[in-house]
Design brief:
The structure is a single chain. About 40% of the residues lie in helices and about 15% in strands. It is globular and about 75 Å long. It has 2 domains: about 140 residues, N6 adenine-specific DNA methyltransferase, N-terminal domain (Ferritin); about 280 residues, Rossmann fold (3-Layer(aba) Sandwich), CATH 3.40.50.150. It has a 10-stranded mixed sheet with strand order 3-2-1-4-5-7-6-8-10-9, with helices on both faces. The protein is of the alpha/beta class. A hairpin with a 2-residue loop joins strand 9 and strand 10. It is built from 17 helices and 10 strands.
Length: about 450
C-alpha cells in the first residue's frame, strides 16, 4: 500500500466500528497501535546491539507475538483479540512495575498506556486495522521509518479538524522558523513545557541532526530534548514522534508543568534549559492551588501568563526562548501581565515581537497571535517589532491553504537585516526603546494590523 493512503484506509475501516466516535478517537486508536509497532522495531535494534537487553514488555504482548498475521489461522481475531487487548495488553502495560532507576526508554511504555483507550468493539475490524499497519511499514528499515514520518505529519495535521485536539498542532512553518531563529546547538537542552505532539521539538531535532558527525554527537542528540504534556493523546503522539526521530530514551513526561512550585527550579541542576520553544495553551484558567506555585506578583488565572512565568524561572543564564502568545497579552493591563512584561524587559532581554496574521492557526482558532523572542543574557536594550502580512494571492490561511515556510521568507530576510519599514502610513517594522514601553504602562501592542475605517456618508436630501 502507498504510505499516503494508509491513514485514509485505517480511518475507513474504523468508521464501520460502533465503538469509535469521531476523528479524535480514530487518531488515538491509530496512535497506540503505531507506538507498539514502532517500539517493537526499536527493541529489535536494541537487542541487536546489546545481547543483555531485556524488554519491559512481556513477550506475549510484544507486537511480533500477537499482531503479525502469518495467514495460518493462529493470529487472534474477533472476540479473542478484543479480550486480549482489553483485559491483558492494556491492563498489563498500564500497570508495569517500574523501579526508581528504570530507563526512560521503558518508562514511556507505562506512561503511554496509563490513560490510553481501545475504542474498537469489533474484533474483526480491529484485526483488519492491525494487519494494515503491520504490512504497511517495516520500521526496522531506516528509509521506511523515515518515510513514515511524512505520514505521521498527516496524522498530526488531522488533529486540526478533530475537535479540541486541534490545540495540540502548531503549523510546521511556524515551529521551523522559531527553531531556526534560536539555532540550537548540540550539547544544549531544548524544552517545551506543553509539548503537545512534539512539533517544536522535532523542528529543533532537524537542526541538531545536521550537526551529528560522530557517535559522541549522536549521544548528545539523543539527550537534547525535554517535554511535558498534560493530555494523554498528544503525549502518546509526541513519544511516538520522538522514537521516529531516533530519540531512543525520550525525556517526554505525562504531567502538568504548572503543578510544581516554580521557585524550586532555580535550585535544581536539571531545572533550567538552554532553549525554550513553546506555544502555551491560552484561553484556559487555572485554580488557586496552581496559582500558588508562583510568586504573588505572577499569579494569574490565565494559563498563558502562568507558562510565561514558568519560562522566566526555567530559562538558563544566557538561554533563549521563542514563545507564541495571543494579542491579549500584549495590551493586557492586569497585574500579572504587567509584571511579566516588566520582567521580560528589565530582567530578561525581550528583543523581538513578531506579529502573525490572524488565520495562521485556522481552522482551529482565529485568535491573532505573536511570537516573543527573548533571552536571559542581560536586560532588554529595546524591542524590534515586525508585522508579517499575508503572502501575495492569499486573503487568509486555511486547512487547504496552510502557512508554509516559504511564506516566512520576508520575515527571515528582515530578521537578518533589521530596519524600520513603513507601509501606507503604518509601521510594519519598528524599534521601540524600553523607556517608551515602560512609559506606556508596558503596553506592547504595537505595529499591529491596520483596520479599515468605514466612511459614514451623510444621508442624501
Amino acid at each position: 500500500m502507498a504510505l499516503g493512503s494508509l491513514v485514509k484506509t485505517l480511518q475507513n475501516i474504523m468508521r464501520k466500528d460502533a465503538g469509535i466516535n469521531g476523528d479524535a478517537q480514530r487518531i488515538e486508536q491509530m496512535t497506540w497501535l503505531f507506538f507498539l509497532k514502532i517500539y517493537d522495531a526499536k527493541e529489535e535494534e536494541w537487542e541487536f546491539h546489546d545481547d543483555s537487553y531485556k524488554s519491559v514488555i512481556p513477550e506475549r504482548l510484544r507486537w511480533h507475538s500477537w499482531a503479525v498475521d502469518n495467514c495460518d489461522g493462529k493470529a487472534p481475531t474477533g472476540a479473542e483479540l478484543l479480550d486480549f487487548i482489553n483485559n491483558d495488553l492494556f491492563k498489563t502495560l498500564a500497570n508495569l512495575e517500574m523501579g526508581p532507576n528504570a530507563p526512560l526508554s521503558q518508562v514511556v511504555v507505562k506512561a503511554a498506556f496509563t490513560d490510553a483507550n481501545n475504542y474498537m468493539k469489533d474484533g474483526i475490524l480491529l484485526r483488519q486495522v492491525v494487519n494494515e499497519i503491520d504490512k504497511a511499514v517495516d520500521f526496522t528499515e531506516y528509509k521506511e521509518r523515515h518515510a513514515f514520518g511524512e505520514i505521521y505529519e498527516t496524522i498530526l495535521k488531522d488533529l486540526q479538524s478533530a475537535g479540541n485536539a486541534g490545540e495540540f498542532y502548531t503549523p510546521r512553518a511556524v515551529t521551523d522558523f522559531m527553531a531556526q531563529a534560536l539555532a540550537p546547538k548540540l550539547g544544549e537542552k531544548v524544552a517545551d513545557f506543553a509539548c503537545g505532539t512534539g512539533g517544536f521539538l522535532t523542528s529543533a531535532l532537524k537542526i541538531l541532526d545536521s550537526q551529528v558527525n560522530t557517535p559522541a554527537d549522536r549521544e548528545l542528540y539523543n539527550s537534547s530534548i525535554y517535554g511535558i504534556e498534560k493530555k494523554q493523546l498528544p503525549y502518546l503522539l509526541c513519544v511516538t514522534n520522538m522514537l521516529l526521530h531516533d530519540i531512543d530514551s525520550p525525556e517526554i513526561f505525562h504531567d502538568n508543568s504548572l503543578e510544581h512550585d516554580v521557585r524550586d527550579w532555580k535550585h535544581k541542576k536539571d531545572g533550567q534549559f538552554d532553549v525554550v520553544l513553546m506555544n502555551p495553551p491560552y484561553g484556559g484558567s487555572e485554580n488557586a492551588s496552581i496559582q500558588n506555585n508562583f510568586p504573588v506578583a505572577l499569579r494569574s488565572s490565565e494559563t498563558a501568563d502562568l507558562f510565561l512565568g514558568l519560562i522566566l524561572h526555567r530559562l538558563k543564564k544566557n538561554g533563549r526562548a521563542a514563545v507564541i502568545i495571543p494579542d491579549g497579552f500584549l495590551f493586557g493591563q492586569d497585574a500579572a501581565k504587567v509584571e511579566i512584561k516588566r520582567r521580560l524587559l528589565e530582567e530578561m532581554n525581550l528583543h523581538t515581537v513578531l506579529r502573525l496574521p490572524q488565520s495562521v492557526f485556522a481552522p482551529y482558532t482565529s485568535i491573532t497571535t505573536n511570537v516573543l523572542f527573548f533571552d536571559n543574557a542581560h536586560p532588554s536594550e529595546g524591542v524590534w517589532y515586525y508585522r508579517m502580512d499575508m503572502p501575495d494571492g492569499y486573503k487568509h490561511f486555511s486547512k487547504t491553504k496552510p502557512i508554509k515556510l516559504e511564506h516566512m521568507a520576508k520575515v527571515q530576510e528582515w530578521w537578518n537585516n533589521r530596519k524600520e519599514i513603513e507601509e501606507d502610513g503604518n509601521p510594519k517594522a519598528k524599534f521601540h526603546t524600553v523607556d517608551e514601553l515602560r512609559n506606556s504602562g508596558f503596553n506592547l501592542d504595537l505595529c499591529g494590523y491596520p483596520h479599515e475605517e468605514e466612511k459614514i456618508l451623510p444621508p442624501t436630501s
